[in-house]
Design brief:
The protein has helices spanning about 10-15, 35-40, 50-70, 80-100, 105-125, 130-140, 150-185, 195-230, 235-275; strands at about 20-25, 30, 45-50. With about 280 residues, the protein is mostly helical. The protein has one domain (about 50-275). A hairpin with a 3-residue loop joins strand 1 (about 20-25) and strand 2. Helix 5 (about 105-125) runs antiparallel to helix 9 and helix 7 runs parallel beside helix 9 (about 235-275). It starts with 8 loop residues before the first helix and ends with a helix.
C-alpha cells in the first residue's frame, strides 16, 4: 500500500486498481499522479506508464522468443520450445484457413501476433497480486498494475487498430463507393438509405466496442476476484488458509479465461478481416 493510504479493504482495492499515471496536472504540471484524484484531473492525454511498460516488455519477449526459435529451427529433432512454437503457428494457421476465405498474407501474422501478445498480457493476471506492486514500492514506485488487458486504454488501442485495418481493406477491396453502398443500401434497399445507414453504422461501430470491452471486462473481473481473495490473508489464519485454497482454485479456472479471451480476440479479428474482403 502507499504510505499515504490507510490499510483498509477499500484502500487496498483502490491501490491495486490504480495505474501509474503520467500527465499534465493543472497544479503540478507534467508529473506522475500520487492519487486517483490527481490521475483523473490529468485528463484524457495522461499515459498509464505501467500498462505501457508491461505491454511493450511482453511484446518484446514475444518477438525475441519467436525470433530465436526461427533462427535455430531444425528439421531434425526439434527441441521442446520449437515444438511448442510450431504447434502455436499451426493452430493459428488452421483458424485462419477455417475463418478467412480471402487472400491476404497479412492476416495470419496479425492473428499470431494478437493471440500471443494478448495471451502474454493476460497471463500476468496469474502473478500473485502483491508480488510486483510490493517490489515496485521498494523501488519508490507508488502504483503498479501488471495486467495490461485490465486497462481499457490497451484493449481499445488493439481493437481500434483492427478496426482501422478493417476499414482500410473494406475500401481497398470494394472501393469507397462499394463500402458506402454496403452502409447505405442494405438491408432495406435504396429507398431506406437513412435507416440503412443508422442500422449499419451502429453495427460497424459496435465491432471495436465489443472487441475491446469483452477482453477488458473479463480480465478486469478476474483481477478483482484475485484482489478480493487476497484480502482474506489479513483476516486471520483460518480465512487465510481458505484464501489460499480459493486463490489456487480461481487461478486454475482463470487459466481457461486467459486462453479463451486471447483466442476470442484473435478469432474476431480474423472474422472482421474476412468480412472486409467480401462484397455483399
Amino acid at each position: 500500500m502507499a504510505s499515504s493510504e490507510t490499510l483498509t479493504a477499500s484502500g487496498y482495492i483502490k491501490h491495486h486498481l490504480q495505474n501509474l499515471t503520467f500527465g499534465n496536472h493543472p497544479d503540478n504540471g507534467w508529473s506522475i499522479a500520487h492519487s486517483a484524484e490527481e490521475a483523473s484531473e490529468m485528463g484524457f492525454m495522461a499515459i498509464h506508464l505501467d500498462s505501457m511498460f508491461w505491454s511493450i516488455v511482453l511484446g518484446i519477449l514475444f518477438l525475441v522468443v519467436f525470433r530465436m526459435v526461427a533462427v535455430r529451427v531444425t528439421s531434425g529433432t526439434p527441441g521442446a520450445l520449437q515444438n511448442f512454437i510450431e504447434w502455436i503457428v499451426d493452430f493459428i494457421e488452421d483458424n485462419v484457413r477455417g475463418s478467412f476465405s480471402g487472400k491476404n498474407d497479412l492476416i495470419a501474422p496479425m492473428a499470431l501476433t494478437l493471440f500471443v501478445w494478448v495471451l502474454l498480457m493476460n497471463l500476468m493476471d496469474l502473478v500473485p497480486v502483491d508480488w510486483i506492486p510490493e517490489l515496485a514500492k521498494l523501488l519508490g514506485i507508488e502504483y503498479m498494475k501488471v495486467v495490461p488487458t485490465t486497462d481499457p486504454n490497451i484493449t481499445f488501442s488493439l481493437a481500434l487498430s483492427v478496426f482501422v485495418l478493417m476499414i482500410y481493406f473494406n475500401i481497398k477491396i470494394k472501393g469507397l463507393g462499394g463500402f458506402l453502398g454496403e452502409l447505405t443500401l442494405q438491408p432495406f434497399g435504396k429507398y431506406m438509405m437513412p435507416v440503412n445507414l443508422f442500422l449499419e453504422g451502429i453495427s460497424l461501430l459496435a465491432k471495436p466496442l465489443s472487441h475491446a470491452l469483452r477482453l477488458f471486462g473479463n480480465l478486469y473481473a478476474g483481477e478483482m476476484i484475485f484482489i478480493l481473495i487476497a484480502l482474506l490473508y489479513s483476516t486471520g489464519w483460518v480465512l487465510g488458509i481458505m484464501g489460499g485454497f480459493l486463490q489456487w482454485a480461481w487461478a486454475v479456472f482463470h487459466v481457461l479465461i486467459v486462453l479463451l479471451q486471447a483466442f476470442i480476440f484473435m478469432v474476431l479479428t480474423i472474422v472482421y478481416m474476412d468480412m472486409a474482403h467480401h462484397e455483399h
